[in-house]
């Protein structure tokens, strides 16, 4: 009975941490480098020149 209760509590704690980290994306591998680069360029985090240079580096 006590073991079952401890397992339920452990499962709830695990689910809480998975939720806090943004779900199960870490199991799927998340974004690939090209998607990250595209997102950063679209958000204005990098310039067009930086984008082209990094895209070229990824494609070589």
From TrEMBL:
<feature type="domain" description="SHOCT">
    <location>
        <begin position="35"/>
        <end position="58"/>
    </location>
</feature>
<dbReference type="InterPro" id="IPR018649">
    <property type="entry name" value="SHOCT"/>
</dbReference>
<protein>
    <submittedName>
        <fullName>SHOCT domain-containing protein</fullName>
    </submittedName>
</protein>
<dbReference type="Pfam" id="PF09851">
    <property type="entry name" value="SHOCT"/>
</dbReference>
């Amino acid at each position: 009975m006590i073991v079952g209760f401890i397992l339920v509590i452990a499962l709830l704690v695990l689910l809480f941490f998975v939720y806090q980290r943004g779900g199960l994306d870490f199991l799927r591998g998340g974004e690939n480098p090209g998607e990250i680069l595209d997102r950063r360029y679209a958000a204005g985090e990098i310039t067009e020149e930086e984008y082209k240079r990094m895209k070229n580096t990824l494609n070589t």
